[in-house]
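Can anyone check this?
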Amino acid sequence: MKKNILVIPGDGIGPEVTTWGKAILEQIAADFGHDFTFDEALMGHAAIEATGNPLPDETLEKAKKSDAILFGAVGHAMYDNDPSLKIRPEQGLLKIRKELGLYANLRPILLFDELLNASSIKPSILKGTDILFFRELTGDVYFGEKVRSEDRNTASDLMIYHRYEVERIAHKAFEAAMQRGKKLCSVDKANVLESSRLWRETVQAIAKEYPEVTTEHMFIDNAAMQLIKDPKRFDVVLTANLFGDILTDEASQIAGSMGMLASASIGDGTGFFEPIHGSAHDITGKDLANPLASILSVALMLEIGFGLKEEAKVIITAVDKALKEGFRTNDIADETTNPYKVLGTKEMGKLLLKYIAQTTYTN
């Protein structure tokens, strides 16, 4: 298979983790006889510093020509501390999603048994959890009109959805549910928000096309509680942009750390694959970042983006082996971890490369 992959390291720990995501792709290509070519581009704070634009035209052009994108993170504390800044790193991320038509964000909450103690939630509650989130990505309050009054004392953000936006992601979520446990929970706030009432009635209509799937509707506040109280009750979760952003970050506690969660943003063309952990400037350059979420994002790229299930399985097996043998990065270590097995970013990346090279599968 021949594929052109664009690497956008971004900000903070983004370059540190994408280095290992790319290395894993190179190893997989060598082991399975694929031809993966790579290019690199700027986005976020790094792009603002270099060009004044969080998404340079050159980056967008490269993105549109690529078969898949491996992304790191965007963000910087200077923007968090100064809300008045007009140009911000996250604008680049929102724009590339819109330009590429990446309307569906898939976030699997895959719990490795070895990390049951890394979470603050009781292992008995967590064990067996396997959730796939479908978060709508190009509508909602993030993309609605934003207004600030002349005296700067009043602000508003328009929460807007069109029916077709709900329909297209709902179909993807129901199709995934058909391949999994045939259960889907749609999360909204239909008792208060008109946009959620449109969301619910649209999902209800589409559910009739998938009679084998048991469909549940849940308000966001209850869903946030149930996700911690009884995560095993969920299989496929379908929700809007804002609610999905919050719920999937909350779900990082199920997996033990944001450093373990991968994601795929897809539409009808080029896919965008990234860890959900953000730029984490407080640990940038300290060899503390967990590269496993970026590496698991590569597994998603291979499986969802390219249809290479065996190759993806090799990566997940390697991650599982590292965890079973007691190796951890600092964010997923606990009091039972052997201190000699707490690895930095580079050591963990090298370990995964070693395990992948040792693994062979017969197609």
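Reply from J.R.: I decoded it. The chain has a mean pLDDT of 94.
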